[in-house]
Amino acid sequence: MSASTESKPSWGASYRLIAAEKWKAKSAAMGRAVTKALVEYARPQAGMSVLDMATGTGEPAISMAERVGPNGQVIALDQSAELLEIAAGRARSRNLSNFSTRQADVHELPFPDEHFDLVTCRFGVMFFADVRKALQESCRVLKPGSRVCFVAWGPFDQPYWSSTMGIVHKHVGGPLLADSARNMFLFAPPGTLSAELRAAGFHQAEDFQQSLPWPWHGTIEEVWEYAKTLSTPFQPLLNRVPPEKWDLIETEVHAAIAKFVQGESVNFSATVVLASGTKQ
Questions:
Q1: For the chain, which terminus, N or C, has the lower number of CB atoms within 10 Å?
Q2: pTM for this entry
Q3: What is the maximal distance between C-alpha atoms in the chain?
C-alpha cells in the first residue's frame, strides 16, 4: 500500500518502514495489478518527464521510468526521506538512470510552471491535507495538454478491508478511522474525485471504479500481520481492542481471510478508483 506521506498519520519511520522492509516482496506483488492499471491508464510515452507524487517506496514511479526510457525522466516525490531511500534503492537495482527522488510537500511543489508531461499518484490523493491546493499545484507544474492520473481506494466494504479491519470494528465499535485519517475512502463515491479535479482547474476530468487482483502470496497469518502493521489510519481502532477480545478477533479474521485462499496465496480483489484530468 503506497499511501501519501502528506497525511496526518505517521507514514514514515514507524509502521510503513517496518512493513516495507519485512514484506517488500510480497507487498510489491500485492499491489502489482493496481500499479499496472495506473500505468496503462496514464499511458506514459518515451521521452516524457513524469512526476510521481507521494511515491512512498517507488511505485508507480519505477514502472513509469521503465516506460519513458533513457530520454525520459521520472521524479519520485515524497515527504519521507526514509521511504525515498527505499525507492532509490529499488530503482538502482533496475539500473534506471532516468529515475530520481525529491523530498518535498505536494502542496508546495518545488518545480517551475509547465514542467512535466504527466503527474501520477497511487493511493495518496485521499490523504492530502488540502486536496484542492495539491491538485492546483499538480496542474501548475503540468504542460498544457498534459494529464494527471490518480488511483485512490474505493469503498471500505470490500474483501481486504472487510475481512480484517471490518471484523475488528464489529467487535470494538466507535470510529472506524482516526479523526486525522477520515479521508482514506473519501473518493469512493462516484464523481467525487473528478469534481475535485475540475474545481482545481482540470478539464476532461473523469473517475471510475475498477476491481483488480490484490493477492498475498503467503499465509493467512502473514496477511493479517501485514494489515495490522501497515494500516496506520486504523491504529487507533486496533489500540481500542481489549486484551480479552484479541483471541476471538484473531479467530474470526483468520476464518474470513481463509475464504480467499487458493493454493499458497490469499487472492483478494481490490476495488479502486482511477481518475484523470487534463490541463488545458
A1: C
A2: 0.90
A3: 59
